[in-house]
Amino acid sequence: MKNQTTSSKTENAMKHLFWKCKEKENETIWDDVRDNNIKQIREDIKQLGSWPLADSDWNPDSFDLNGLLQKIPSITGQRKLDISFGIFQVSMPGARKLFIEPTYETYDVEIIEEVLTDVLGTPPGKSEVQDIDFFGHELKKIASYKAQNITIPIDDYSKVKSAIPDVDIDKLLQQLLSNNKAKWDKIKNQIYELNGFHQKAKLIQQLIRDHKRSAANYLIYKYAHTAYSYLSKIETKCHETVIENLPFPSIRVFVRNHFDKNAMKDVDTLVEDMKTNYIDLIENSEFLTEKTKKGAIQKMKSMKKTIAYPEEFEASGALDSIFNLNGTLTVNEIISDELGHDVAWRIFKKMDLSQEKKIIGFEDYSIEKLYFQIGATNYCAPRPQHTLREQLEDPHSTLSFRVNGVFSNKKEFAETFNSPVGSPMNPVKNFNAYGIIFKESYSENGWSG
C-alpha cells in the first residue's frame, strides 16, 4: 500500500500517518518536523476560539461552549471505540448502541508546564497551571460520585439532555456521522447512559457555569495535550503505529488483500448451518413463549456475519510456535517467585491457624487450599492488551504463568490438590530454585527455558 495510489480516504489517511511516522525516524529532520508541528498546533488552537490563559482580553460572556466542544472530540480507549468531548464521552462497544457517560482527564503539573511552554513559546504562570489542574480534578470528583442508577434506557434520554441544557448533545453526536440525517434516525433510538450521567450532568453544567475561565482553559488544553502527545519520539514501528491508531482501516486493507476468499465460502456455509440449527432449537423449545421465540428468531435472522481468518493459522501447531515465550528473559523473576513462595510456605506452615474463622462459601476448603487460592488472586487481571512483539520482549512473566508456572513446580501444591504426576499442574520434570534446574518446557503457558 505504501507505494500504490488509491482513491480510498481511509487508505490515504493510513499512508499519511505512515509517512509522518517515518519522518520521526529520520534524526536529521526530526527537530524541524517537530518545530513545524508545534506551529501547526498553535494555528489549530486559534481556530478553537479565545484561550483565556493566552488572551488577556478574554471575556466570559463570549465563551461558546458548544462551539468549542464541536472542535475538540478525540478518540480514546484501548480499543479506540470511545470519543471524548472533555466533559463527557460516548462509546460504541457494539450491538449498534451508543453510551454516554461522564469523563475527565487529570494531568501532572509538570506535564502541563511542559506542554504550555512549548505550545505558547513561554513558560506559563503558576495560576494558569493551577486553573487547568483544578478543573480536571473537579470533573474527577463528579465522575466518581456513586449514581443511583447504572443505566437508563432511551425512554429517559430526554433526562440526559435536560440535565445539561447548555450542551447540545444531539448536535455533537450528529457531527460524528458521515451521513448525518440517515444515520442519526437509526442511532437516536439506541442511545443509553452509563454511570448515572443524567445525575452528574447537572453538576458538570454548574461547574462550567461557575468556572467558565477554568473550563475554557481546561478544554483547550486538553486539545493541545492530545496533539502534543503525538510529537514525542516514537519507539514502535510505523506500521504498528498505523494499526494502533487506525485499526478498522488496517483490518479492511488486510482482509481485502490477503484473505483467501474461496476458503471463506466454506466458513460462511458453516455459519448458516449453525444459525439454522439454533432457530430449530428455539422453535422446538417447550418452555419459551411464542413472543420470546419470535423475538429470538428475528434476532438470529438479523445477525450480521463477519467471516475472516488468516489461512496460515489452519496448520497444526502454528499457534504454538507463534505464541511460545522465551523464558531466558524472565528467568530472574521466575527464580524470585519460586524463592518467595518457598519462604512464604515455610512461614505459613509454622503458623497456628487452627482457630481461624471459616470463609463463607469455602467452609469445606482446607486452609492449605485457601492459601493457594488467595495467592492466585494476586495476579488476577484481564488479558494484556499489548502486542505479541511487546510480550516476547517483556522481562516479566505472564500473570497466568506466575500462578500456574510457579504452583506447578511445588510438591505442596500437588499434595494439597491431589494432582496426578504428569498432569499440567504436576509435571514429571520441573525446576528447583536452589539448584537452578529448569523445567524443559511449560507448554500450557508457552514458556520454555
UniProtKB/TrEMBL annotation:
Gene3D superfamilies reported in the protein's UniProt record: Collagenase (Catalytic Domain) (3.40.390.10), Neutral endopeptidase , domain2 (1.10.1380.10)
Pfam family, one: Peptidase_M13
GO biological process, one term: protein processing
Matches recorded under InterPro entries: MetalloPept_cat_dom_sf (IPR024079), Peptidase_M13 (IPR000718), Peptidase_M13_C (IPR018497), Peptidase_M13_dom_2 (IPR042089)
SUPFAM superfamilies (UniProt xref): Metalloproteases ('zincins'), catalytic domain (SSF55486)
GO molecular function terms listed in the Swiss-Prot or TrEMBL record: metal ion binding; metalloendopeptidase activity
PROSITE patterns linked: NEPRILYSIN
Every Peptidase M13 C-terminal domain range: 297-429
A GO CC annotation given for this chain: plasma membrane
Name of the protein in its database record: Peptidase M13 C-terminal domain-containing protein
